[in-house]
Amino acid sequence: MSQPSDVVFDPAAAYPGITALRAALTGRDWAGARAVLDSVTPADRTSLIRTCGDEKDLEEFLRYVLRGDPRDGAAAALLGFHLIYLGWEIRTAAWAKDVTEEQWAGFREHLRKAELVLIDAAAYNPGDPAVWTSRLLSARGLSLGIAEIRRRYDRLSTAVPHHLPGQMELSYSLEPKWSGTWEELHTFARDAALAALPGSPHGLLVSEAFFSRYGAADDDAERARLLHDPRLRADLDQAAQHSVLHPRFNREYGWVRAASSYAALFSLLGDQPNAARMFELLGNLATVEPWAHSEEAAAPKIRQARAWAFGGAR
């Protein structure tokens, strides 16, 4: 069986809307941007808005758009994600103990600015899932607590049930390093994945919950225990059958991340047939995590696992 020799991490290779939206934003063509966003599913819309929130120098342009139409939820959600992105750039991905007071101040300032935009946006557009997904991220960054995060998630799920981008945000907040516990995270991930339509990529919630806990384990013995935990294995298998292994697996928002996550999981478990199935779905597409924390580190691991899955040696 032939296999691609390279690994493509660029999400635009799987979701061409990213390229179209970035081009419209670069040209400050809001009508063009709205045409892209209005043509896709709610989950794709939220994903596009979040992904393109890292575009340079968007704040002035989007505030101009909102002055012309304060009810434009897409512009408000994009501005919210953009301000949050800028704040996290200041904070960096360092451990909290290593973040300076100046960095914390800049981080919180940008997230508070995002909150002001998003509060108005939620009032104008209470059913906009991109607005509520952005508010889940700002709530986590500002440490507003799990009760407020769950309140925001409830508003989101009432407006748009099974909204995977928002469910991913809640999942992050349920990790112990933020506001929750491993038990809460696993329960939510399992229930949300199985409640989604069969063949949807929501099994990602369960595999990512597992890898979050696996990565946080203290040592190899703890990781081995998690890998063989009968309850976790049962949840992972059930979610996979309902999602990535379902005959009608849907290539909607999150499918690359879901297939890549399960490719890593099946490789870890030594499940060669199902690992090969995931790599066949992916072609040369992949996501960095859970393989590693950088493209440079992830690529050789993916190539090695892919060669093994297609019949090579470990």
The biggest beta sheet is recorded as:
none
Q: Class by helix and strand content?
A: mainly alpha
Low-confidence stretches: none
* Structural Rg: 20 Å
> What amount of the residues lies in strands?
under 5%
Q: What's the overall average pLDDT, rounded? A: 95
Given the C-alpha coordinates, what overall shape results? globular
Roughly what percent helix? 55-70%
Distance between the termini: 17 Å
Per DSSP E runs of 2 or more residues, the count of β-strands stands at: 0
Strand-and-helix sequence, N→C? HHHHHHHHHHHHHHHH
Individual helix count: 16
Explain what the structure shows:
The two termini are 17 Å apart. The protein has helices at 17-26, 30-37, 42-51, 59-68, 73-91, 101-124, 129-141, 146-159, 164-173, 182-195, 204-216, 220-227, 230-242, 255-269, 272-282, 295-309. With 314 residues, it is mainly α. Helices cover 66% and strands 0% of the residues. It has 16 helices and no strands.
Write the layout of secondary structure elements.
Elements: H1 17-26, H2 30-37, H3 42-51, H4 59-68, H5 73-91, H6 101-124, H7 129-141, H8 146-159, H9 164-173, H10 182-195, H11 204-216, H12 220-227, H13 230-242, H14 255-269, H15 272-282, H16 295-309
Helix pairs in contact: 1-2, 3-7, 4-5, 5-6, 5-7, 6-7, 7-8, 7-9, 8-9, 10-11, 10-13, 11-12, 11-13, 11-14, 14-15, 15-16
How would you summarize what this structure contains?
66% of the residues lie in helices and 0% in strands. It is mainly alpha-helical and 314 residues long. Helix 7 runs antiparallel to helix 8 and helix 15 (272-282) crosses helix 16 (295-309).
